[in-house]
User: Fold EamA family transporter from Chamaesiphon polymorphus CCALA 037.
Amino acid sequence: MKQFTNRIPGQVYLWLAVPIFGASSALTRKITEIGAMNFVGGHNPISLCNVLFVGNLCALLVLVAIHRSQWNPTILNRISRREWVSLVVVAILAGALAPGLIFQALAWTPVTNVVLLGRLEPPLTLALSIWLLRERVDKWEFLGAIIAFMGVVLTIVLQPARANMMPIMGLSMGWGELLTVLGALALAIATIVGKQRLARVPLGIYNTMRTGLGTIVFFCVALSLYGRYHFTDVLSPFLWQWMLLYGAIIVVVGQSFWTAGLRASSVATASIVGSFTPIFGILAAYLILGEVPTRAQYIGGSVILLGVFLSQVGIKKRANSRQRVGAVDLEQSIESKMGFKGI
Assistant:
């Protein structure tokens, strides 16, 4: 069996993983709709908060099983106090704040909007890298980021008028779009903190800490905002059966395919394949939820994809000279979007 899997090209694993990640937001919305049709005690057992909390617990169990060897005194003692503080900051931003904002956005705006506006994160990360880290970027990567940002703006500007839309910095957007943008900003800041201060921290500790502490922080914040009865149905068997199925597909299968593909492919190849995630996200929203893209989404999405394509030209050139470092950065970036973050 091992000899057979070794003969499978790395790109095949990558192309199997990307549709799984792309479908995560649509699957999250679909599961909550199923819960709404199967109330338990007058409540939806698969509320967005329950999905995020229980989903992260499932993801945490997987991460602990995969990376348990890294949690030993020898490795932990090498992590400085400054790095532990940075881990806490990243856990709050990427493990609690960003997923909480994006999950709430899924309740207020179409999944396609969340998928497209989530592409604001790479341009924001690039801008912060130039500003704070003084990084030099390829001209194609810079041009692609600007065009992708313009695509996000077009997606917002061309949206048809809806109830509860509000003017923000000259743009009219709904609460769902605003929360998605704020979530992308939180992820971008977390990425910069990780690049600047957590380069020496093993990836397993980084991901486990982010997921574990982020889950605890989210739980405490939700309790303070919504009250102690908010997670009444968190032990519902109906909820857990769906979460275990979802976790097995998104976390275990998706992450396994991606890791196998990343190890057998170049960084540039993995980055190019990963850039197709939004396309699969839009397709999943149509096939699973019946969401037909609007004119604004078609126009904005096309511009965003053009920007992504141009960025890949720069990424490929940079990856050729930074193969090893780039692989670590890319794996960390992709894994930060796995599990139950809804991005």
Remarks:
- The first helix runs from residue 2 to 6.
- The CA atoms of residues 203 and 332 lie 7 Å apart.
- The beta strands are 166-168, 171-173.
- Residues 1-5, 324-328, 334-343 have pLDDT under 50 and may be disordered.
